[in-house]
Amino acid sequence: MQARRGWFSMKWIAIAVALVLGGPTGAAEPDGMRLDGRSPIYEAQSQRALDLTDEVTLEAWVRADRMGQGGGRILDKSMPGTSDGYMLDTFPGNSLRFVNAKGACTYDAKLPADRWSHVVGVYSASKKIMKLYLDGKEVAGADGGAFVPMTTTGIPLRIGCDPRGDNRFVGRIQRAAVYRGALTADEIASRASQAEPASLRGVVGEWVFVAEPGRRIAPVAGRVALEVEGLNSSTRFWGTIAGKVSAPKEPLSLWYRQPAVEWVEALAVGNGRLGAMVFGGIDRERIQLNEDTLWAGGPYDPSRPEALEALPEARRLIFAGKYREADALIGKQMMSRPLGQMPYQVVGDLLLAFASVEKVTNYRRDLNLDEAVASVTYTADDVTFKREVFSSPVDQVIVIRITASKPGQVSFTAGMKTPQRATIEAEDGDTLVMRGVNGASQGIDGALKFQSRVRVLASGGTTRSEGDRLSVTNADSATLLIAAATSYRSFKDVSGDPETPAKAAIAAASAKSFDALRADHVAEHRRLFRRVALDLGVSDVASLPTDERIRHSMTNHDPQLATLYFQFGRYLLISSSRPGTQPANLQGIWNDSMSPPWGSKYTININTEMNYWPAEPTALAECVEPLVAMVMDLTETGARTARVNWGASGWVCHHNTDLWRASGPIDGPFWGFWPTGGAWLCKHLWEHYEYGGDRAFLARVYPAMKGAAQFFLDTLVEEPTHKYLVTCPSLSPENGHKYGVSICAGPAMDNQILRDLFASCIHAATILGVDEKFRGKLEATRSRLAPDQIGKEGQLQEWLEDWDMEAGDIHHRHVSHLYGLHPSDQINVHDTPELAAAARRSLEIRGDNATGWGIGWRINLWARLQDAEHTHQILKLLLGPERTYPNMFDAHPPFQIDGNFGGASGIAEMLLQTRVRFSGPAMTAQIELLPALPKAFATGSVQGLRAKGGFDVDVEWADGKLVAATIRSRLGNACRLRYGDVVREVRIEKGGTFRWDGR
Ligand code: FUC
Fold it and tell me: Rounded to whole angstroms, how far apart are CA atoms 548 and 884?
């Protein structure tokens, strides 16, 4: 306290003296520079000099206002969401904090809100020092743990905010410095007590801030200058938005009256491969870009030969009831190397800076789901500006169109940013080119090259390039074309050339008019999107902005929100999964991070499958193609894992995979040691046949299904008690049982999945007229799988033993043992009423609330139980603000797209449920109309849903009762229709239609 007061008095005296003497005091303005949400953002010009690994000292003189819980950044050179790089900030609230690869060091006595503080963070990996100083005194230190070198990020050092322009410091700053070295306590104390401190050794940059510093701040010591960053990714608008614009004409639109600030407010566009998040800023626009093959790493082999040696012992331990010991052994000897898989990563941002305005009217941004076009419109100074953005599956470019209601009004600067190792430069006066290599992860080096190109085509005005920026001045309109590609050719070949396709796409699109680009894009999108029309009723609140509707959806009657959610799910699938692209991952294709949650990978113990649940029933069968292609890849990598880790034939994939089709068990035994993921994926191959009846397709994928089955024929073992054939070791996804681990033998889900897999192989072989002996083997093995069992609470048992009520978390998000009820139909209310009742009991015990996808699954399950009101109640949970972000992305939380797809599928399940039964190669479809129609959707209609067996179904209902249904047959299969208790056997010839008059 004493020292602090000392510093203040000395400082003020020095300043007063300087003022009185009228000396060269520019550097010592008492007020320094104001930092807040509206202040310019200064960035260091040379990053290399600041990319420090062993030692750093960060120093600043600041006067903080009282800040919110999130605090604010003082000096920040860290990668958002990670501890890569380094930063000095005030989190939480006004606490002083220093963060780098070692972790965080915090002084949580608050920085005083009304006077100047001298703050310093010091780090030295080699000398094992991490300390915080306030007013020359050490106030916090970290001594435990490893003192690791800091990671370099190439990310710019910023003053007063993070690299995105967010987490802004609120208060004033007068002086700051960065040193390549750890200052000593004496040096720091001496600096703290001087108003004009002499520069010290190792200074990389030292800057003095005055009230109006201008564009550039030259260093008073060191060599690094600061410059105003005109292109920052913050899209917060600090002016006023006047006027309340009304809803767009298209009812299938998401729309808002303010720009997105957070990523989960931005609107997603995509062509299956190229994704963009559109923020819709006013004076700054951020278009965050993705390309679906830009993942970390390169081809790699995670096999673990020692796994096979440990397999007999692991099994012995499990059958002896020594689950913890088995878990330990598996953890030690049977997991993949590396233990994790590669994450999906971001390309970067295209940033546009427009002239700043104080006031705009009639601002609206929207995403028209029927056109797949995102738009922004607003009026400023009597000029109405419009921006449209779409990602074209036809021309393989993202297109941005900027127009104004008066000529010569379109002016902006464009630049790109990326956290990747990349260069950005302007080319040919109208193009920005980003060239980079992907990140490394888990010791696997980045092996991909990538390139993104942005070309500006302006009509009128001037287009210029300067360094890594393009500027357009006084144009009438402008079209920006964005292409991106990587060198990925397949999971084992990265020899592609990213430049040729990126250049070619831009060249071809440049030769087309904007109107033609737009029209072709819209037509291709509508070809898929318009196959299904849904009307669940409309209430008054449907005219409100989407974010408001979501905020109040738990209490409002808003059936159209469910329609919107359903169609948004279809929109997302069309936009993230098209023939030739990668399958939709945990975030579809939308991700702004280098290390997204769960790597934004393919988690195949529910999440990836859920992504594809709505595909067939909502008439998007083409969108399944990338998933099928991934399974075909997995038959190759998974054969290696089967052979090396399990000593088995066929192929296997555990609970996750990535771009490189890694198939071994990852993360840890608790999550990863589950060999049934690939088998579950095969259900999607088979269902594609059940819906579409394409025999050639079946012939192509049958080897994959057979290979999956072969693995289990080789690895199922007889368990000692009942002599069932079981998977072992395995687990019921991510749920710890009575013994505190998840490792077990023969969990119910595995038995159910294998019953489906074997049955589908038997039917497929019968249809194709092949493999008679193999069929026999499958039949014999299938009959020895453990049956579903009902436990002491009347529940469906999750494990071979009745452990459910003793599990660690009886409300667990996963409901794996209910796979038999949905997505499978082994359990259903008509054929297996006792098991259906047990499944219901399990669901009641589990409870309704869960993660986004957990709720998504429960909707489908309750719909299968045909409890309409309960299904609707859970749907409301999903549409509520805790599980749906303002941009309608599902909140696990964080964002995970599976809930969007699970929700869309669940709504379809409320209206139509179908299954097929085989007699030899012939299928009979069972189609049930309105099996779970809630009162909230009393009157409505749906056109174009698909049923298994090759049927298109339209249904119309009023006051909760069927009015009419039209069933068109594509394949001429037999069909059994059900509505309530009425069942009709109908034979519709191929191409024919049957009309059910409900009245
Ligand atoms: C599974 C789930 C988690 C999450 C992750 C991606 O591990 O249990 O909730 O969805 O996948």
Answer: 12
